[in-house]
UniProtKB/TrEMBL annotation:
Pfam families associated with the record: LacI, Peripla_BP_3
Signal peptide: none
Keywords of this entry: DNA-binding, Transcription, Transcription regulation
Keyword flag DNA-binding: yes
CDD domains: HTH_LacI, PBP1_LacI_sugar_binding-like
GO molecular function: DNA-binding transcription factor activity; transcription cis-regulatory region binding
Cross-referenced SUPFAM superfamilies: lambda repressor-like DNA-binding domains, Periplasmic binding protein-like I
Protein name per UniProt: DNA-binding LacI/PurR family transcriptional regulator
Organism in which the protein naturally occurs: Nocardioides soli
Cited InterPro entries: HTH_LacI, LacI/GalR-like_sensor, Lambda_DNA-bd_dom_sf, Peripla_BP_I
HTH lacI-type domain residues: 8-62
Amino acid sequence: MAGRRVRPTVGQVAERAGVSTATVSNALNGTGRLSEETRQRVLEAAHDLSYVPYTSARAQARGGTGVLGLTMATHGDVAVPYTEIPYYAELILAAIRAAHERGYLLVVLPASMSSWTWLTTPLDGVVHVEPRVHDPVLSILAKRGIPLVCAGRPLESRRSDAWVDTDDGAALVDLLDHFRTGGARRIAAVLPDHDDAFPAILRSAYDGWCTAAGQEPVVETFTPDLAGAGERAAIEAALRRSPDAVFGVYDDSGRLLLEAAAEHDLTVPRDLAVACFSDDPGYAHLDPPVTTVSMRPAEVGVASVDLLVGLVNGRRGLRRQRLLAGELRVRASSA
């Protein structure tokens, strides 16, 4: 009979990371005065050894539950299938893994406002993804006094807010510069009309780039819907304005742009360069492969949990607002 698997110890983590056991505890609890490099080294050592702290004991000692929550932007009673969208699926999985590494459970809560169970669920803290203007989730959590980190900055961010986001504006400028280097002189934007920060940041970056480049803005907007009808109509309107490059910002945008280009007898990229903001790996295998901007969902998920654990444990000197660089992945659709 095989022997029972021996659980790794805090001492083994300390030895692997080259630190004391107290430093390991501080790193995993989000406490103490540690450099970010030291904290990351401890977390990597814990991950390599599959070490998980005794969450229940730690939670009881600090008067908590050992449970974190993750909520998504709500849209009334519409249950958006977030886990079917690559960006959100990757963010959620990374956040769960990061919580486990830090000795917490993470519960993904319903995205529909028709389900109120998450309002009374005992939680030590919450990561809320893509807050909206006047977001009901934010107001309810604030009333409960639950520590909160937003994955995606609020549109009206205050200095006291805690959030992690991708620098989408800078990433868009990289994409626009790439289009222009390839010869594009009339770049169209297909943007959602929505009350979160993402489209507002992109519109501001696009308008600023157009002013600097001397290009007239070519923008078509749409109201998001699950069927994608609004975006299709906006793409049609954009193509009627004869752009030589076009980008969308949702996971399905690249496919919709390719379909529309084919319907207009436009060859990609000869007649029309195409790109989108997406973390769908399938774009690398289309014909032609589509240029994408990655918003690094795994890194956003991990950084959000890391910041939340620090808030829950009262860690001092926290940088409450963290901006990560996006990544332009150039493929044949714009090369």
